[in-house]
Amino acid sequence: MPSRTGLEAEAISRLTDGLQPAAIRAILVQCLAGEVAPSTAISRMLAANGASTVRAAIDDVTRRAATASRASDRLVQDRVDELTQVFVEQVAGLDDVSDAAKSRPGSDRGPVFRPGEFGDRDESQTSE
Q1: What is the reported pTM?
Q2: How many C-beta atoms lie closer than 10 Å to residue 58's C-beta?
Q3: Is the bond leading into 21 cis (omega within 30 degrees of zero)?
C-alpha cells in the first residue's frame, strides 16, 4: 500500500502537471504540499505574474481537483479549496479598493497590490 506522502505527491502531480508558467506551477506545488500557506502562495504568484495568469492557474487546478480527484486526494483537495477561497477573498478585496479609487475625483490609478499584504487566515491578529 502506498504511503500517505506518496499518494499526496501523486495527487499534486496530477493536479499541476503541465501548468504554465513553470514558476506558478512550482508555487502551487509548494502550496498543495502544505509547505506554504495559500495567502503566501497567492502573494508569490501575483508577484511573479499578473492576476489573470494566477487566476487561470488556480481555476485550472480547481477544475482538475473537481474532475480528476480520487478518494485518497481529500487532503490535497481541501488545500485546493482553501487556495481558491483565499484567492477569491483577496480579489474581492482588490475589487473593493478599485471601486473606491474609481469613485474618488481625480483618481485614475487602480489598486496597488503588495506581495505579503494578506496575512494567513489562521494567524492571530494583534493590534498596536
Answers
A1: 0.67
A2: 25
A3: yes
pLDDT tens figures, 90-122: 876 665 444 444 444 544 444 444 444 444 444
Q: Where exactly are the structural domains of the chain?
A: 4-102
Q: How many Cβ atoms from other residues are within 10 Å of residue 104's Cβ?
A: 9
Q: What is the DSSP string of 16-82?
A: HTT-SSHHHHHHHHHHHTTSS-HHHHHHHHHHHS-HHHHHHHHHHHHHHHHHH--GGGHHHHHHHHH
Q: How many angstroms separate the CA atoms of 53 and 48, rounded?
A: 10
Nearest-angstrom CA–CA distance, 62 and 2? 25
